[in-house]
Every structure is written in C-alpha cells, then in structure tokens.
Amino acid sequence: MKQRVHPVSALIIAFGIFGFVYFAVTSPGRLLQYLFVFAAVGAIIYFVIRRISNRDMGSEGAAFKKAAKQSNKRFQDHKKRSIKGKVNHLRSVPSINKSKPVLVKKKSQTQLTVIEGKKSKKKNRAFF
Q1: Could you give the CA distance from residue 24 to residue 31 in angstroms, rounded to a whole number?
Q2: pTM
Q3: Residue 71: what pLDDT?
Q4: Dist. CA 48–CA 44, nearest whole Å
C-alpha cells in the first residue's frame, strides 16, 4: 500500500529544498562553513552519547565483552582446525587398502557463558 505525504509536510520539504538550493547558489562558502560546523557538532554529540552509554553498562558490559571475546576466540580456533584437517580429494593415487575404520570425532558441546545482570526484571510488552 502506497502512503501519501501530507500536503503540509510536502510544502515544508519543498521550501527546505528551495532554501538549500538558493543558499548554495548565493553563498556557497557559508554553506560549506555551516555544513562543516553541523558535522563537527554532530560528531561531538555522537561521541559524548557513546561515552555515556558505555559508562552506564558497567560490569554487565565488561562481562558481555569478555564473553564475546571468548566466543570469537573459540570460533577462530574451530575454523583453524577445520582448515588444517581438510583432505585433498584430487589425489592421483587411489587408496586400495580400506581396512581402517573411519573415526568420527565427537563434537564438543558449546560452552555458554552466563552474564550477570538483572534477570528478575520483567519486560512490559505493551511498550514495543
């Protein structure tokens, strides 16, 4: 289903585009200056918010990062083993003697890390 833009919103967007084009034609130097200041202020706000949100995580964030690092290390370890154990199927000499049974390695169970936190807090599903 196609949604239509409200006429007032379309008018505001049109005036904004007209003003931007007019400002770019009449004084492009000031436009670049405004865009640079806008980008700098946006970057500062972004880094401040990131810094504050990382601080709020506290020990839960550190535990999560530690668990993620362990998981990534385990995944990389598994990847290296699978690459090392590959068999070359393009051999020119066929194997005649097949008396040895093929050993199937049992997969190790994944190791789960419990992250401490507020598990008793219930989510209010009405706010999704």
Answers
A1: 6
A2: 0.38
A3: 86
A4: 6
